[in-house]
Amino acid sequence: MEKGLLIVLSGPSGSGKGTVRSVLTEMEDFAFSVSATTRAPRAGETDGVDYHFITHESFEEKIRNGEMLEYTTYNGNYYGTEFSEVLAAVESGRNLILEIEVEGAMNVKRIYPEAVLIMLLPPDFAEQERRLRGRGTESEEIIRGRLERTHAEMKYFPRYDYVVYNREIDACAKEILSIVHAEKCAVKRHADAAKRYFE
Q1: Where are the beta strands (DSSP E) in 39-161?
Q2: Is there a contact between 162 and 119 (Cβ–Cβ < 8 Å)?
Q3: pLDDT tens sequence across 68-106
Q4: Cα–Cα distance measured from residue 135 to residue 138, given in angstroms and rounded to the nearest whole number
Q5: Torsion of the alpha carbons at 30, 83, 15 and 114, rounded to the nearest 10
Q6: Distance CA 76, CA 73 (A)
Q7: From CA 197, how far away is CA 199, in angstroms rounded?
């Protein structure tokens, strides 16, 4: 069976990662990895659906055992992707989307070089700021922090495989689908094609 692709989708706050991912999964049958976290479940969240909720000790044991493909800490809690989740999806032939930060994306590429890294960006920095302010849900300090973080995130830009500008959600999702379909046809993913052709 042909393996699925591991697609890593990253982008600064305001790029629309979550929305684009939702539209993509409506257009095509993508798998989506359920992340593990040490934070407590919020109201309405279900273990194994929203996150795998595990203890600090269990998470750190998984790190020591090399079971985490990528992980990060935020507000004192661990968040990460278990290698087993990814392998189960791609080995079944399904394409998997990981929506993660740039540092995690670099870890994924190091451990799983076949991963396809896509940087999702707003049309420009001014539009990013407009979108963040348009939410009306965050303080000026948080908005400034998110915008400042974008400068650090963009330092990783040259290490990505593709860039997609999110000017309009559906068009953006279709562009990502085009990348996925092209990658599935890449010669590097069909190294034994000539041999199989003559069988």
Answers
A1: 52-53, 68-74, 77-82, 96-99, 116-121
A2: yes
A3: 999 988 778 998 999 988 988 899 899 999 988 898 899
A4: 7
A5: -80
A6: 6
A7: 6
Work out the end-to-end distance of the chain between its first and last CA atoms, rounded to an integer number of angstroms: 17
Q: Give the type of residue at 69.
A: L
pTM: 0.84
Strands (E), 6-106: 6-10, 31-32, 36-37, 52-53, 68-74, 77-82, 96-99
**Are residues 177 and 184 in contact, defined by beta-carbon separation less than 8 angstroms?**
no
Distance CA 117, CA 126 (A): 24
Q: For the segment 111-164, what is each residue's pLDDT rounded down to a tens digit?
A: 899 999 999 999 999 998 999 898 887 888 888 988 999 999 999 999 999 999
